[in-house]
Amino acid sequence: MRITIRDDRHLRALTGVTRKQFDLLLETFTFTFETLRQRAYQEGFSAGTRKRRPGGGRKGAIPGMRDKLLFVLYYFKVYPTFDVLGTQFGMSRSKANENLHALCPVLYETLVHLKVMPHREFDTPDGLMKALNGAGTVLTDVTERDHRRPKDDPAQREHYSGKKKTYCQKHRDVGP
């Protein structure tokens, strides 16, 4: 069983990208895939462990680059189990796992190359300021912060958040 894309709305529902974005990603994804494969071939050739030429051997369960990109984007959009992912793309769960872990670095390098990979962590405050690129105001969505449960009853009532077994410091003051 293969996933067939009926229209742009269907593609967005399965992958989170439009047809135009998919085509742009596909071009860079293909280039990145071939570059990484060639690099792996050269490393294997120089180490003397390479047994066949690139493209030789058995063909994989995901034959085309379009299908490979669809496979990895579908996984990150839907997050199915490997059993479901394998069923959708006509392979076993172990092959689905293996293919996903082989294609994730390719997608990562593609997003880095296109400069759309989001920043996850910053080592220093200066790094954060550089990433913000001169933004004047930063808003943080925080209304309460976890707090140790007080011993006395009035303080417990003041810090109880209404959620089961949760005590927190409430931040009600919103100002400049």
Q: Can you tell me about this structure?
A:
By secondary structure, this protein is mainly alpha-helical. The chain folds into two domains: 8-113, no CATH class; 125-170, no CATH class. Helix content is 54%, strand content 3%. It is built from seven helices and two strands. It has helices at 8-15, 19-47, 65-78, 82-89, 93-113, 125-132, 153-159; strands spanning 144-146, 168-170. It has a two-stranded antiparallel sheet. Helix 4 crosses helix 5. The chain is elongated and about 75 Å long. The model has no long low-confidence stretch (mean pLDDT 81).
Question: What distinguishing features does this structure have?
Answer:
176 residues, mainly alpha, two-stranded antiparallel ribbon, 3% strand
Residue runs with pLDDT of under 50 for 5 or more positions: none
* Tally of DSSP β-strands: 2
Average pLDDT figure: 81
Order of strands, widest sheet: 1-2
Output the radius of gyration: 24 Å
Helix percent band: 40-55%
Instruction: Kindly name the structural category.
Output: mainly alpha
How would you spell out the order of helices and strands?
Answer: HHHHHHEHE
